[in-house]
Amino acid sequence: MSSSKLNLFSFTGKMQILHMSWLAFFISFVVWFNHAPLMLAIAESLKLNQAEIKTILILNVALTIPSRIAIGILVDKFGPKRTYSSLLAISSIPCFMFAAADDFQQLALARFLMGFVGAGFVIGIRMVGEWFPARQLGVAEGIYGGWGNFGSAAAAIALPSLALAFGGENGWRYAIACTGIVALLYSVIYFFSVSDTPKGSTYFKPKKAGAMEVTSIWDLFFYILMTIPLYAALSLLTWKLSPTGMKLLSGDTTIGIYIAIWLLFLYNLYKIVHVNQEHLTQPIEPIHQYKFKQVAILDLAYLVTFGSELAVVSMLPLFFHETFKQTGITPVQAGLLASSFAFMNLVARPGGGWLSDKYGRKLSLSVCVIGCAVGYAAMSQINSAWPIALAFAVTFLCSFFVQAGCGAVYAMVPLIKRRMTGQIAGMVGAYGNVGGVTFLTVLSFVTPEAFFLTIAGTAVVVALAVQFIEEPAGHMAEVMEDGTVAMIEVV
Fold first, then answer.
1. Rounded Cα gap, residues 221 and 128, in angstroms
2. For tag attachment on the chain, is the N or C end more exposed, with fewer CB atoms within 10 Å?
């Protein structure tokens, strides 16, 4: 295997780690989205109304925002091997709870807890970053993210047939339970098949757990500022369930949740200050410094790429059906057309990583985000007068830039500060969910045309922000256990 190419048919060394990790991510996404293709059967079995169905869908992503932050801290402290194995094993519990649920309340609790498994993505980012050199990192992270992301599509394809094979009114229960069994079994396989680092390498850990370390007082304030949207998104989800939204929470319950969210923010604020106050009182050597703006810009880039993907895949089947129903398009055909947006993950995410490795990370990210802006602007013009083939082509091209942008973001994440890769990946990933929540909320108030234009306008702003990111160059420094400094190549 050459130094610049990956042998995808190899199952030894770092390639074994890559294959084992993307499969772990794949399984986590199958578990996370195992309810979606079976929702009709679940609703009929438990007599759910439309409001309850929408609540289940919202609750599925609610816990993912804080859990990606928490998982980022855990993976940096305990390593990806133990963290991924534990996550898969633990996630089987709410999976079994969901399969055994007898009423809406039990379903809702299980689905809320299931959001935790959506944080699995963060773990593999650190694992792949430990095993692959910078010149291969973009494409390796792209393969991990893109192929793992396909788990949601695989669930949509396989689980209805599996439920049908089991048969009866409880077929959906057995199908969902099977995904929990797979996650539990693979947690054991993963634990005994991987290691956190190549033999002889050091796994660098943060000096203190609970929050990211920053290297200047201004970055401390910047870090605090960038945490606020995470809690604002949770408040927005709460509002959607409140008496002024879907009317599924009482006024007192809503107020209680708001208080809990912002108390959690205050605790996070305390941890940020606590982790950083001691070392910021001392001069920090230039080789140990990094700029938090790198993290912040990647947060925004993932908000507009993965965040828009989350929102668009949720509305695209209905959009195509409503737009082209006069041509006789069926809901199934509209769903197949819309599925192209998610299917692009298989090639576009690795493609974005490959472009980053070959042509530079800043340039590649800039091109991808600008492509998102142009793509969504074009999608805003789709109407019933368009040929369906042209609408599909525009959607397909837009989705390429969106998925490639996701790959370009995570081609840079592991090159900022090695010992905090999990926490950085967690924060960036959480911003993707923030984007999804925000854009879907916008959609609830405006037309699809305005929705697409909103994303396009956001992408233009983010593209400008990307121009302030700094291309990774040279080396990043980490301190060994014996006090010596290790220099890690980032180009």
1. 30
2. N
